[in-house]
Amino acid sequence: MDENKLTETEEAKNESPVAETEITTGEQQPEQTRALPTDKEGVIERLKEIVHAGGETERSELEALKQTYYRLHNAEIAAAREAFIAAGGAAEEFMPAPDREEESFKAQMSLIRELRAKATEALEQEKQKNLEKKLSIIERIKEMSVSPEEADKNYDAFKQLQTDWKETGQVPPERATELWKNYQLYVEQYYDLLRLNHEFRAYDFKKNLETKTRLCEAAEKLTETEDPVSAFHQLQKLHQEFRETGPVAKELREDIWNRFKEASTVVNKRHQAHFEELKAREEENLVKKTELCEKAEAINIGELKSFADWDAATRQIMDIQNEWKTIGFTPKKMNSKIFERFRTACDNFFQQKAEHFKTMRETLSANLAAKNALCEKAEALKESTDWNSATNQLIALQKEWKTIGPVAHKVSDAVWKRFNEACNYFFDRKNEATSGQRQEEEENLNTKNDIITQLEKLLEEAGENMQQTVRDLQARWNETGHVPFRKKDKLYKRYREVLDRLYKELHISAGRRNLENFKKNVADKGGNELTRERNRLMTAYEAKKAEIQNYETNLGFFNSKSKSGNSLVEEITKKVERLKEDLELLKQKIAAANEQIRNEEK
Q1: 10 Å Cβ neighbour count for 357?
Q2: 555: buried, middle or exposed (CB in 10 Å: 19+, 13-18, 0-12)?
Q3: What pTM does this model have?
Q4: In b/e form, how buried is each residue of 133-148, taking b as 16+ CB within 10 angstroms?
Q5: 280/488 Cα distance (integer angstroms)
Q6: What would the pLDDT profile of 33-51 be if each residue is shown by its tens digit?
Q7: CB 457 within 8 A of CB 469
Q8: What is the DSSP letter of 91?
């Protein structure tokens, strides 16, 4: 019996709880083990599940759900603000709509907090009760360990106390180590005093070995678990059971412990590697988000002039924001800073955009006022029966309309419809009133086209009576009435071009004849008469030269941007060309007179 007592005591002392505790100590980092919802409804549904489960979840999951909800909430507000601005609203006037789901979200969070608080309070109370119960168990074992006789007599009660100890839950962590040491101390004292036959003790050791072997196999299987965080948490439960299982035979004690410890080391290393990898990913995310900040900050707002420029830049910002959403968290100490930097860059862009479009809205408003004024003028003319005057005024209004810039898209069609209807109303009335006139204008058009054709033939078949024929055709042209308004300018341009060519040809021919006649006449003159003729020609030459210079000077002051201005400039230019031809003729006449004077002097 003494040998048995010694063996039991040594086995109890060598079953080291301190060594086992060391494996499970260390900082446990929270981890989100399930995918986060992608919308606010999913967040609320998950919170309801947690409420139905009594609020039992990791704090990290609650924090992640909260961040996800408010990220989605803020994204909706940002999208609404952009839509408000795009619709013409001012950024400073934007007021987000109430979030109907936020009350439900806050209610679920509040319920969870209450449940967790109650659970925590209940757990603390339970831990205190467990502490008192385990202290009572220790006291009972202590009482059984006063003598070998008491140990033998109370063996069944002792085994029941061990079972009660295992079934008793957690105690306050600050008392756990001391409590366990005291428990082990008195258990070892009990085994030291216990006079138990060898067969019974061997059976106890065998059951404990089976239990610890099973725990080793479970720990080894955890090394193959895909989720290292889940494996780590399961390992803690295995450690708890290992600690609470009684001793094994002394010769097997170290081997079974080393086997369990080796499996635990693998699981712990995988757990640590997982968080190191997570930290590395967060650093990569920080680099990516920094690059997106730089891209947003690099957009040169000063170069955005047109709507297309702003639209392209807005799409670029939106693409950057969408890419930002695909990137995960950064290191905790930098998460708020990098987001603040990104938000500042985006807010600055949209603020500048709002100011730009505010200015644009003012311009659009001014354009709308100008176009409304034209609408009023057109509406005042649409009932007029003074067809020519009203037509000219409406055409002028239509031309002025084209010079006014755009208006807001939502009123563009309406204001154009108003103006167009007023113009169409007048011209429809005019067409009804002048339908017979149009047929006459078409006949006049054919007549004038025929006159132009005859004038063009005169250029090819020049004859002695060409000047008279031209005059007759001009008279016929002037006697012919109006032609269709839209064809008037083009027709008249053809008419003037062919006349100009004919007059130029007639002018050149007349100049040649005039010079030949002058040379014949000057040959019959002599003395003072010839000198007076030359002086008259010189005077006419200088007068003509001064007239040309005057016209050329005035040409510099004409505004040729309008149609009437172009016509006047063209007419004066042609007149200057004819004057220069006359000047050349005078020059030749003066030369002929000088030659005759030199002949007489010889």
Answers
A1: 19
A2: middle
A3: 0.35
A4: bbeebbebbeebbeee
A5: 81
A6: 567 888 878 888 888 888 8
A7: no
A8: G
